[in-house]
Amino acid sequence: MNPVSLEEAKRIYRSVNSISKKINSTDIVICPPFVYLKSFLNKNSKTKISVGAQNVYTEEQGSFTGEISPLMLKNLGISYVIVGHSERRARGETDEIVSNKVQIVLNSGMSPILCIGEKERDASGNYLNIIKEQIKNSLNKVNKKNIGKLIIAYEPLWAIGAKEAMNAPDVYEMCLFIKKVLSDMYGHSEAISTKILYGGSVNFRNATDIIQQGKVNGLLVGRESVNSSGFVELLKTVDSL
């Protein structure tokens, strides 16, 4: 729920939009709160920024006061939807709910950004089973032909808001593991082509190592995304790689 005013949201957007004109090889997606979406969807303006939503409901329409339909988002011009973010899972969102959301986003012609991640990293390696089950359960309604529209964001909960991000070699290990699970489900080529993001205490100082050594396709940026100067530096860093 940041920032708390449209004026501040526009200020951040202007900073990002200004630097986006110099960004050549990086896709930029911003996912502001619902109340700000339309302000950044001016189809007549020239921008390299795509707009996504932070959440969606599991039904296309009906008597569901307070919810946001995928068709509303699609008709507004939204391209991406974050699904299963750790903060929503912490508030009771189950893999089954996430699975329904992933499927309805795909059916509506948008790309889901599926968030997965363990609460803690135990020495016995049980966290790998947790990630595997999250992926399998969250994608149990997605067929092979639609997997190419999916983006997976790996965000270990213990790294969110921490002083340091997950170290790059461990990010790479998880990237390989996620692709192995996807390969078992959909096939090698589909797994290799699926984009994987890393999220958790990302900033311009650690972005290079995470991208180059962690071998992820991009970043899911949290608190740094509302720090306009830091986010601009992050974009420039990533685009230079």
Features:
7-stranded parallel beta sheet, single chain, globular, alpha/beta, TIM Barrel, 241 residues
Question: Could you explain the architecture of this structure?
Answer:
With 241 residues, this protein is an alpha/beta fold. The chain has one domain (6-239): TIM Barrel, CATH 3.20.20. It is built from 9 helices and 7 strands, in the order αββαβααβαβααβαβα. It has helices at 6-20, 70-76, 86-90, 95-107, 126-138, 168-186, 188-193, 207-212, 228-239, and strands spanning 28-30, 49-53, 80-83, 111-116, 151-154, 195-199, 218-220. It has a 7-stranded parallel beta sheet. α5 links the parallel β4 (111-116) and β5 (151-154). α1 packs parallel to α9 (228-239) and α5 (126-138) packs across α6 (168-186). It is globular. The mean pLDDT is 96.
Under CATH, the homologous superfamily reads Aldolase class I
Q: Tell me, what's the shape?
A: globular
Tell me the number of helical segments per DSSP (H or I, 4 or more residues long). 9
Named CATH topology: TIM Barrel
Largest sheet: 7 strands, parallel
The SSE string, one letter per element, is HEEHEHHEHEHHEHEH
Averaged pLDDT: 96
Q: How many E-type strands?
A: 7
Give the C-alpha Rg: 17 Å
How are the strands ordered across the major sheet?
A: 1-2-3-4-5-6-7
Distance between the termini: 31 Å
